[in-house]
Specification:
236 residues; alpha/beta; Glutaconate Coenzyme A-transferase; globular; transferase; NagB/RpiA_transferase-like; 3-oxoacid_CoA-transf_A; CoA_trans_fam_I
Length: 236
């Protein structure tokens, strides 16, 4: 445990942050966000960041914190709704945006982790997504070439970790987190629970420890709901 376990989120990020770096941040909406690591990135003052994430949090939460502090230069994302600050910064020209179809974003990250520099997909053919990208035909269909994504640092949030850094994610938090953990030079995982070696059935490990460099217990586990929709309870 001593090799990979760090006592605090700040300690887990110590020596890893620098201006102009690329960070992958897990999460889908507000599910599976590295809630404890993001505030430490903000506190560090590091700037001109390129951040790869499905979205940029929601008003007041998640990566919104780094937008609010003007530390993000560019977002590589799929979904940019529900975030007024994101919208304002992009429309004013203060924030660069590389918008990806969601499946393409996931595959670009997976390709980065697998060592595949480029791949072809039909998604985006004939749209602005394909502008400036090579197009080739396979079996009579056109495909657009997309390139891998890799990062200097991946920050992910898992449910449980063992001393070797093997990770398990819980439900929707098993979204972009597992692939991001494979596609960065250094991966830091904040986890809700540390378990003894041998706890995991090998078939139930979502991310092998070989991809995880540092582990820290979460200090924030708010698990906020981005948009709550309810309906009246039916009469018994």
């Amino acid at each position: 445990m001593a090799d990979k376990f760090f006592e605090s989120p700040a300690a887990a990020l110590d020596g890893l942050l620098f201006d102009g770096m690329t960070i992958m941040s897990g999460g889908f909406g507000l599910s599976g966000n590295p809630e404890s690591l993001i505030p430490e990135i903000r506190a560090s003052g590091v700037k001109a960041l390129t951040v790869v994430s499905n979205n940029a949090g929601a008003d007041g939460f998640g990566l919104w914190m780094l937008l609010e502090s003007r530390q993000v230069k560019k977002m590589i994302s799929s979904y940019v709704g529900e975030n007024k600050l994101f919208e304002q910064q992009y429309l004013s020209g203060d924030l660069e945006l590389e918008l990806n179809p969601q499946g393409t974003l996931a595959e670009r990250i997976r390709a980065g982790g697998a060592g595949i520099p480029a791949f072809y997909t039909r998604t985006g053919v004939g749209t602005v997504v394909a502008e400036g990208k090579p197009i080739e035909a396979f079996e009579g269909q056109e495909y657009v070439r997309e390139t891998w994504l890799r990062a200097d640092l991946a920050i992910v949030k898992a449910w449980r970790a063992d001393p070797a850094g093997n990770l398990m994610f819980r439900r929707t938090a098993r979204n972009f987190n597992p692939v991001m953990a494979t596609a960065a030079k250094v991966t830091v995982a904040e986890v809700e629970e540390l378990v003894p070696a041998g706890t995991f059935d090998p078939d139930c490990i979502h991310t092998p420890g070989i991809y995880v460099d540092r582990i820290v217990l979460s200090t924030i586990n708010e698990k906020k709901i981005e948009k709550l929709t309810t309906r009246p309870r039916e009469a018994a």
